[in-house]
Amino acid sequence: MDLLTVFGLVAVTAMLATYALEERSPWFVLAFALACLLGSAYGFLQGAWPFGVLEAVWAGVAFHRWRRRSGR
Questions:
Q1: From the CB of residue 7, how many other CB atoms can be counted at a distance below 10 Å?
Q2: Cα 64 to Cα 1, 40, 45, 48, distances in angstroms
Q3: Which helix (H) or strand (E) holds 6?
Q4: 3-state SS string over 19-55?
């Protein structure tokens, strides 16, 4: 397994874990947004730009949800 694959695995695992914990705290929503940015970076780095774009959009949606839930 190369380093890029490990990076992608960590990013997607972080997305799954933080998504599952979102109801516990707005901070998990923010963590999900950051994990989506990692997933986006992985998509672009591996050459799957549609995946990178969609993950960037998900990061924006999650960041918006965090701002709404945290009152910021």
A1: 16
A2: 35, 17, 25, 25
A3: helix 3-20
A4: HHCHHHCHHHHHHHHHHHHHHHHHHHHHCCHHHHHHH
Residues 6+ apart with CB under 8 A from 61: none
pLDDT single digits (tens) 5-57: 999 999 999 999 999 999 999 999 999 999 999 999 999 999 999 999 999 99
How far is residue 15's CA from residue 32's CA, in Å, rounded to a whole number?
6
Where do we find the tokens 């774009």? 53
pTM (predicted TM-score): 0.92
- One-letter amino acid identity for 62? A
With b for 16 or more beta-carbon neighbours within 10 A and e for fewer, the 33-68 pattern comes to bbbbbbbbbbbeeeeeeebbeebbebbeebbebbee
